[in-house]
Amino acid sequence: MSNAIETNNILNRLPKHLMQFIKPQNYDDYSAIDQAVWRYVMRKNVNFLSTVAHKSYLEGLNQTGISIDSIPNMYGMNRILKDIGWAAVAVDGFIPPNAFMEFQAYNVLVIASDIRQLEHIEYTPAPDIIHEGAGHAPIIANPEYAEYLRRFGEIGCKAISSAKDYELYEAVRHLSIIKEAPNSSESDIATAEKKVETLQQNMGEPSEMALIRNLHWWTVEYGLIGTLENPKIYGAGLLSSIGESAWCMTDEVEKLPYDINATYKDFDITKPQPQLFVTPDFANLSLILEEFANTMSLRKGGLSGVNKLIESNALGTIELSTGLQISGIFTNVIESNGRPIYIQTNGETALAYREKELVGHGTNTHKNGFGSPIGKLKGINLAIEDMSPRDLSAYDIYEEQNITLEFEGGIKVSGEIITGKRNLQGKIILISIKNCTVTHNETVLFQPEWGIYDMAIGKEIVSAFSGIADLNSFDLITHVPSTKTIQIKKSDQQIQLEALYQQVRDYRDNKNKTISRTKVLEQLIEKYPSDWLLPVELYELAAIGNESNLCESILNHLETIKQNRPKVGHLIDDGLEIVRQTVNV
């Protein structure tokens, strides 16, 4: 199978800055053990989920072309996903939340292409292809849910994070990686867990991203649908966890009606969830999402929106009432009577209108930051943006006029007007001034020797959001993860065990019928006495062939494993039960 990143019409729409997160799936790197893990989880899940999952899950498995027997090649999956308007890409573990959401907004499913170890077959804190491919992909075949997912991404990628959110993201990513890595020491894991715990307990006021991630968790990842008395599973975290999918159906897990209050319910990604939320239908998900979006700076703007951007210490955008958009890292806001009267960015800044950069107002022009008054002129009821050409002339806001404009709150702008820019409705959105001095009381905010002063026009800030208005304004190809998924060098013993798994897989797939399964069992008993999954697969083949003696030998060996490893006893029993249900044993 090809490892190339195949493109299609949906992936071609992705902006360049998202492409940096995509990696080849490297399908040939999956071992026969990995394939056996996938097959076991999928067979057990489909067997169990047929009774407890939302009907869209099993229908979606067929529609998205996900095989029960083999790990999906996602770039082959794309040929099927495109029929429902979606695509899939491989990434390395957790990616930044805003990027993850933005992929969703483009109808692209992000799939962590690694697969969990056999030792973590029931649950892994790290995103893997079982969680993403077997959990997320099938359910998006439901058009109402797929639209919810897209809309969630569209709104979620605009949510403003705090500086602590970025720190917590890196800590969780590191923890998930070392918990899944085979050779991690208990002390390293404990240290990483402690760091995550400490950060979580000292996050302060939750950011918009923290709140919307809660909604994502309790719906997309761990959502239930239906009634409190008889819920069905649709969340990918539950659909892909053979442990939690059964446990969540018990009375030990509290079931709560899904509403806006779920926004404030935090979660621990490393542990099973003590409570879950039940939505009556998929339409309710969209209603709650819109209810939350109405609380976001994206729709409220104002002083709080600017302050959230300042706290994030990351690229963000404010939009003024004229439609002018200012993108950069916001560092300061002057306020008066609870309203912003002056905003300031530091470093590269770009101005745009309707997500398109204004000609001559990119980061090269505003490479040292941008500042502007916000609001109305003092003593004048009519805002500059609402003035007709005759009004502007009456107040000397005119080319080549020397003016002094005093704004409400005490901002003064003095200088000679050069020109102005208007929006499509004819409103003034930007005025360029030379020999300009800008002050607030005794504080000088801009001096003539700094060059041309470009004054944004807008009586209020109507929106503030994470990211930039025009994606071409900044170089966003900057992501370097602090940690990468750990790929260990396999021991000779591990390679030999994988070879035994491959022999059994080849036998089942009719690629090689000459192997002796009795010999494989003997080698397992001698060299790998604790491995439980391959004996279960051998038992299935022996049962299909009505080989009673071999079946008995395998069952005896599995009993020995259960005695020596009681923690895997239920996994063995479940595997044997699946065989008995599919083969007339």
UniProtKB/TrEMBL annotation:
The species this protein was found in: Flavivirga rizhaonensis
Cofactor(s) required, per the database record: Fe(2+)
Residues annotated as domain Biopterin-dependent aromatic amino acid hydroxylase family profile: 1-259
Family annotation (PROSITE patterns): BH4_AAA_HYDROXYL_2
InterPro entries linked: ArAA_hydroxylase, ArAA_hydroxylase_sf, Aro-AA_hydroxylase_C_sf, Aromatic-AA_hydroxylase_C
Lineage: Bacteria, Pseudomonadati, Bacteroidota, Flavobacteriia, Flavobacteriales
A GO molecular-function descriptor: oxidoreductase activity, acting on paired donors, with incorporation or reduction of molecular oxygen, reduced pteridine as one donor, and incorporation of one atom of oxygen
Keywords per UniProt: Iron, Metal-binding, Monooxygenase, Oxidoreductase
Domain of life: Bacteria
Protein name: Aromatic amino acid hydroxylase
A Pfam family recorded for this sequence: Biopterin_H
GO BP, sorted A to Z: aromatic amino acid metabolic process
CDD domains, A to Z: arom_aa_hydroxylase (cd00361)
Record carries keyword Metal-binding: yes
Residues bound to Fe cation: H131, H136, E221
Record bears the keyword Oxidoreductase: yes
NCBIfam families named among the record's database cross-references: PRK14056.1 (NF010657)
Family classification: Belongs to the biopterin-dependent aromatic amino acid hydroxylase family.
